[in-house]
Specification:
With about 50 residues, the chain is mostly helical. It has one helix at about 10-45. The termini are far apart. About 0% of the residues are buried.
Length: about 50
């Protein structure tokens, strides 16, 4: 059976996890901006003016 022991987290582990999360959030932000920009360019090139 599982036990509910408190997990001990060091300051180094916490900083590492926060750094990974911040990098992931930055990647997703720029990825979303790039996707929107590509869709806008595709939309502008496919519309007959």
């Amino acid at each position: 059976m599982a036990t509910n022991k408190p997990v001990k987290i060091t300051e180094e582990q916490l900083e590492n996890a926060q750094g990974i999360w911040n990098g992931f959030a930055k990647l997703m932000k720029y990825g979303t901006i790039a996707t929107v920009a590509i869709l806008i360019v595709l939309g502008l090139t496919l519309i007959s003016w």
